[in-house]
Amino acid sequence: MTVRREELSRATESRLASRSPAFQRSPWETVEQMVVGAGPETIFFGNGNPAREAIPFERMREASERTWAQIADTAGAIDYGEPEGLPALRDMIADRIRNRGIETDRSQILPTTGSQQAIDFICRLMLDPGDAIVVEGPTYLGALQIFDAYEVEYIVAPVDDGGLDVNALNQMLGLRTTMPKLIYTIPTFQNPTGVTMPMERRQALVDLARERGILILEDDPYCDLWIDEPPPPAIRSLDDNVAYLGTFSKTIAPSIRSGWVVVPAGFNRMMTLVKEIADINGDKVMMRTVLNAVPGFLDEHLIGSRALYRSRRDAMLSGLDRYMPPGTAWSHPSGGFFIWVTLPDGLNAIELLRLAVSRFGVAFLAGEWFFPGYSWPAASRMLRLSYSKHPEARIEEGLKRLGSAIAAALESR
Description:
The protein has helices at residues 10-15, 27-34, 57-73, 87-96, 114-126, 141-149, 166-174, 199-212, 268-279, 284-293, 298-323, 349-360, 392-411, and strands at 43-44, 109-112, 132-137, 153-160, 163-164, 182-185, 215-219, 242-247, 259-262, 329-330, 338-342, 362-363, 365-366, 382-386. By secondary structure, it is an alpha/beta fold. It folds into two domains: 35-55 and 302-411, Aspartate Aminotransferase, domain 1 (Alpha-Beta Complex), CATH 3.90.1150.10; 57-296, Aspartate Aminotransferase, domain 2. Strands 2-9-8-7-6-3-4-5 form an eight-stranded mixed sheet, with helices on both faces. A four-stranded antiparallel sheet has the order 10-11-14-13, covered by helices on one side. α3 crosses α10, α5 packs across α9 (268-279) and α12 packs across α13.
């Protein structure tokens, strides 16, 4: 629950840390407020969860049963300790990410409570108040929540159809006297735009980071959910001075909170101690459950997941073609969950959201919320749609409603 400043006494408020405002508001609270009163038939395109049909319930149940049997037979299996994570799980992750071009071993891999925790750990080690970091504009709003807590200065690099615009970023950095410490990027099926950075641009970003002494933080949650063709190799495959984040949240289920980081060169010991300080050790039960569930299963399971998301992606692209008024534009992702929409001139996505919810029964996330401060006038015409959760018929109905809402907004200008 968000703690509101007005609920605090003046004496308590005066003692709060300067970073406390980051913990007193949530962009998700804004979303909830804007869709309050929406009926159960409202179609919400804001969800970033995997489809329920793609969650392997039976496999996880069987894996959980095996896990508890193993724990019962293994002394110390459920005691404190091993902040670095289960060795066999780290070996499995190292093996799986070879298909991303990453050659590593367990010593470089730290399991975390979702990749969200890995972002926080890197920030703990790297950032002091006032330090600059580069983020994509737009970017994952959950990462912005973490960065806000470290009181950073944002450098917002533009995103085009090829992801982060490296040339534009290089020009921006050339005007600065001090360099940022981090570049945070989602180069594959980016959240929220769905675009993918081509290999030559990935190399250019590595070259820029090497030249200017900046650590790249590569977030790669959607890489296994390609639809048209496998994505380019990870940026980490080009340079060990990259923190590479992965997760099972999109391929198994979000609530298992099972992610990892391939740590940058020289970070092994520090990252393990950060984990130890944060929560002593990871969830040994869930780590072992994932270890029991993934081998011999997940790759085959992903074939079905990709087919499901291909059908839903295609349904959304077809519906956008059919129902959006002239002047509307959108991205064409080749994987992941999201499509980025630009509204016709003169419209505002937040104002449209109010209209869409109250009169047409459809909701989405406004584009401004994916920028620092959750407000970005240049993105006022933009919004994010997710196709992952809804079946094709509901996607079509939702887009029909959205098209009617946009048409009504255009008529009322």
